Amino acid sequence: MKDREKVTAEDAEGPDTRARILAAAAELIASGGPDAATTRAVAAAAGVQAPTLYRLFGDKHGLLSAVVEHELTSYVAKKAARKPHPDPLQDLRMGWDMHVAFGLSHPGLFALMCSDLEPAPQPSVVGTGNEVLRRRIRNIALAGRLRVSEERALGLVSSMCNGAVLTLLRQPEGQRDLGLSEAARETVMAAISSETAPPANTEVRSAATTLRASLDRLTVLTPGESALLSELLARITDAG
């Protein structure tokens, strides 16, 4: 009898139950924000007992982290599957707009994504999202149109785009200045790309950026030489 009860308990806490709990939590967050996803409310919505939730996720923080990881995995997969635009700058613009649209349509989830969750979502999930953005920036560099280092471009795009979303979410839904995102986007594009009027030495900096983006294709340098050259090129690229 005890063995049968054990099997039944394990079945009740299988993948389907976990998915049902995550879906219930995501729906509560969407309708009422993160505070609405209490363990009691999630358990009731998912049709499970609270101990099941605790055994699967540990506590509320573990549950929220799992929800973010689950939703982020789905979102990143859609970003990665999108066919890139032939113009790398336009492709980055499209990625920016997609991120803003996601944030505005998932305000509670986006707030959690930008918070310091403990435990944090799996680094592999976050890393995959960053890799999609890094790939778009790398394409700009390979086209000879990036005038700052890839690392600086990544930081600027990520921080400014997330900041634009958070600012818009603080505005009343019917009074949001959607032009703010476009203005922020174009400010970043002007700062990282050579699409607009170039500053002094832009040809040198653009060439350094392009060469640095192509280092992994070179076979004549040792790993140490490649690392040193990469560091020197980054300093040239980011020089004011």
UniProtKB/TrEMBL annotation:
SUPFAM superfamilies: Homeodomain-like
DNA-binding span(s): 38-57
Superkingdom, natural source: Bacteria
Molecular-function GO terms, alphabetical: DNA-binding transcription factor activity; transcription cis-regulatory region binding
Domain HTH tetR-type: 15-75
Assigned keywords, A-Z: DNA-binding
Alphabetical list of PANTHER family matching this protein: HTH-TYPE TRANSCRIPTIONAL REGULATOR RUTR, POSSIBLE TRANSCRIPTIONAL REGULATORY PROTEIN (PROBABLY TETR-FAMILY)
Protein name per its UniProtKB record: TetR family transcriptional regulator
